[in-house]
Design a protein that fits this description.
Blueprint lengths: L3 E6 L4 E8 L2 E2 L3 E4 L11 H23 L8 E7 L3 H18 L3 E5 H7 L12 E6 L4 E8 L2 E7 L5 H11 L7 H8 L22 H17 L3 H32 L3 E5 L6 H14 L2 E3 L10 H13 L20
Parallel strand pairs: 1-5, 5-6, 7-10, 10-11
Antiparallel strand pairs: 1-2, 2-3, 2-4, 7-8, 8-9
Helix pairs in contact: 1-2, 3-9, 4-6, 5-7, 7-8
């Protein structure tokens, strides 16, 4: 029988726990935080307080639904970073307390590496090496994945993340938080070629999304001066056009990375990988480029503990444990842990 690991995720505004046994995820419990909606974004102090309120309940539910007891656990895994310091501190402290009380090892997990390894929760799984486009509210990266614990970032945003661009554009249009999923929903019934926005081209395989955000803001300002009802009258077309530009920016770099590396096993991960426009465009490009494409289930795209558990399983097999002196890291580059 393989190891039994309890994993905890608390990097931002999702409190999550998952139990994995012998590499098989048994459950994935997630408590979301609705408190941030009225503020139009995540409030770090409120997030950390909500984690404190939710974590015992979430962990208890994960253990109960696994059918196992705490004495069956072989290790406790947790997200060390990157993320919000207050949120991370709750998960790290809880994991350390359980580890000490049960006398079992601790496993620190890099949140972004876990997003990549979410592809190994269910079949089919990618073969090594593969490229993974990790896209979220805080990160946009192209990762060269050589094995379960060896990864290298070969391209990344030099300013804002694509998920932040989606959410900020939604806020500018007056859409409620989180606005990224709403843009995706409205884009499905809009004309993606109705409007054009200038994009920034970066050297190599890097990205930049600050320019299109600024251009989008001034575009709406100018159009609303001519017609105050411009957004309401053209909402679907605006969303479709913006999404087309952002998705094209992502896939242009991903295509370049595939050509440069010769790798045709392609994956996407992170919250924005749930975007239907990105998924559809990636599948179309896969047919054109003869790629083998891997897209995780929606449940494993956003922040969740199942991906932390999966990453912990591979680290457990290598006996890569950490000490009780471990502290959270708000910034934690891939390859650090």
């Amino acid at each position: 029988m393989g190891p039994v690991i309890l994993a905890i995720e608390s990097s931002c505004d999702e409190t999550s726990a998952s139990v994995i046994r012998n590499g098989k995820v048994l459950n994935n419990i997630i408590a979301s935080q609705a408190v941030h909606r009225k503020y139009g974004g995540v409030v770090p102090e409120l997030a950390s307080r909500a984690h404190q309120q939710n974590i015992v309940t979430v962990v208890d539910e994960a253990m109960e639904k696994s059918g196992l007891s705490k004495t069956d656990l072989n290790a406790i895994a947790f997200t060390r970073g990157p993320g919000l310091m207050g949120s991370l501190l709750v998960g790290v402290s809880f994991a350390k307390g359980m580890s000490l009380a049960l006398g079992i090892p601790l496993i620190e997990i890099n949140h972004m590496e876990a997003h990549v390894l979410a592809h190994f929760i269910d079949d089919p799984v990618p073969e090594f090496p593969f490229l993974c486009l990790t896209v979220s509210g805080g990160h946009t990266q192209i990762v060269l994945v050589e094995d379960y614990t060896t990864m290298q970032v070969i391209g990344q945003t030099q300013d804002d993340a694509v998920g932040e661009a989606f959410d900020k554009a939604a806020k500018i249009m007056g859409l409620p938080y989180p606005g990224g999923p709403l843009i995706d929903e409205y884009a499905n019934v809009g004309n993606p070629k109705a409007f054009h926005f200038p994009v920034t081209s970066m050297p190599g395989l890097d990205f930049s999304f600050s320019g299109i955000k600024t251009a989008f803001m001034y575009f709406l300002r100018d159009e609303k001066l001519k017609n105050p009802a411009f957004v309401e009258e053209n909402l679907y077309d605006i969303c479709a056009s913006l999404q087309r530009h952002l998705v094209t920016m992502l896939l242009t770099r991903l295509e370049q990375a595939s050509v440069q590396t010769g790798i045709r096993n392609i994956a996407i991960a992170g919250g924005v990988s749930a975007n239907s426009g990105l998924r559809s465009a990636l599948k179309n490009m896969a047919e054109k480029r003869e790629w083998n494409v891997f897209i995780p289930e929606f449940e494993y795209c956003t922040d969740n503990a199942a991906m932390i558990a999966m990453a912990a399983h591979f680290k457990y097999l290598r006996k890569e444990f950490c000490s009780l002196d471990v502290t959270p890291l708000a910034r934690m580059p891939i390859g650090l842990a």
